[in-house]
Amino acid sequence: MSDLDLLTQSLARNVKRWRNERGFTLDALAARAGVSRGMLIQIEQARTNPSIGTVVKVADALGVSITTLLDYEQGPKVRVVPAEQAVRLWHTDAGSYNRLLAGTEAPGPLEMWDWRLMPGESSPSDPHPAGTVELVHVTAGELTLTVDGAEHRVPAGASASFEANVPHVYGNTGRVPMEMITAVSVPPVR
Q1: In the structure, what pLDDT confidence band is assigned to residue 189 with cuts at 50, 70 and 90?
Q2: CB 63 within 8 A of CB 32
Q3: Is 14 helix (H, G, I), strand (E, B) or coil?
Q4: Mind listing the pLDDT tens digit for each residue in 116-145?
Q5: Are 101 and 157 in contact (CB under 8 A)?
């Protein structure tokens, strides 16, 4: 692959990434940059080699440097979190706990958690900001998930999703430990 091909593909990937991160539609970015929607489509599909002037306009409209848009050396960023570096933020004497496994900004905070609740224990949560969504996947036992006062049973092997801008409680009303993985997506601050 030639350097020009690498730059064209990097530009396509990075314009799309930053446009999505900023929450811009194609039309909004086109208006901000003063370029046509068609040109942006061609750039994002790596079907054109735009002039440096066009790249400057798009970079300025996105609020990033030209270097950021043309960066192909770094590639996708991968961060591996070793098991011993997972952060335990809550625990009980009975053995319940949660651990923050990994997190990122995508475009708002996105976190993955590992939970264990011992029989008879629960963990209540205040409402998160509007637009927050949580995903749960139960790997052992049964979760009693209470969202805005309504109780839902989530057995091992099942998953659930819910809007988390209301009070919610993770509970274990069973006789065996309940284990689950959760993901929490919080919208970006605008």
Answers
A1: low
A2: no
A3: helix
A4: 999 999 999 988 888 889 999 999 999 999
A5: no
